[in-house]
Design goal:
156 residues, alpha+beta, three-stranded antiparallel sheet, two-stranded antiparallel sheet
């Protein structure tokens, strides 16, 4: 079974959304196809903001625990919010590197990335120079990535 790439695009008759096959950039549907760069950035901002609002917690960290599965000890690696007692994701097959990357890209980083994209999208035209706001947003993003929570201690 292969996954089919789809996107949401306008219905040609009633203007609502319908599922189109393929990517939006290659779609021949009416009012579909690639967006201009500013609209593309704004769509990404809205998407990241909604994902942030729906996510559990603000920052995430890697957790490890030993489990007995059918009398065999296995090591499970997971992701949990630092401010909630909730496991977001856990699997035996996830690697340490993948878990660390997922945790580093937690909701707080997504939110700051949305803020940076927003500032970039607003920097248009010869009369507007938003470099200071862009630099501040990029600095906050870099700080969040560089100061992410460490791995949670192993459960015993």
């Amino acid at each position: 079974m292969t996954d089919t790439i789809t996107h949401q695009g306008p219905h040609p008759e009633h203007g609502g959304l319908e599922t189109h096959i393929g990517t939006r950039d290659n779609c021949s549907g009416p009012d579909c196809g690639p967006l201009d760069p500013d609209d593309e950035i704004r769509d990404a901002v809205l998407d990241l903001e909604s994902l942030y609002e729906a996510a559990h917690g603000d920052t995430w960290r890697v957790v490890r625990e030993e489990e007995d599965v059918y009398d065999t000890s296995c090591r499970a690696i997971g992701i949990e919010p630092t401010d909630h007692n909730l496991l977001v994701f856990q699997a035996e097959s996830i690697t340490e590197d993948d878990a660390a990357y997922i945790a580093a890209m937690g909701p707080n980083v997504g939110r700051l990335l949305a803020n940076l994209l927003h500032e970039i999208a607003e920097d248009w035209g010869p009369e507007l120079d938003n470099r200071q706001a862009i630099h501040q947003a990029a600095h906050k993003l870099a700080t969040a990535i560089n100061n992410r929570p460490s791995t949670a201690p192993k459960e015993s």
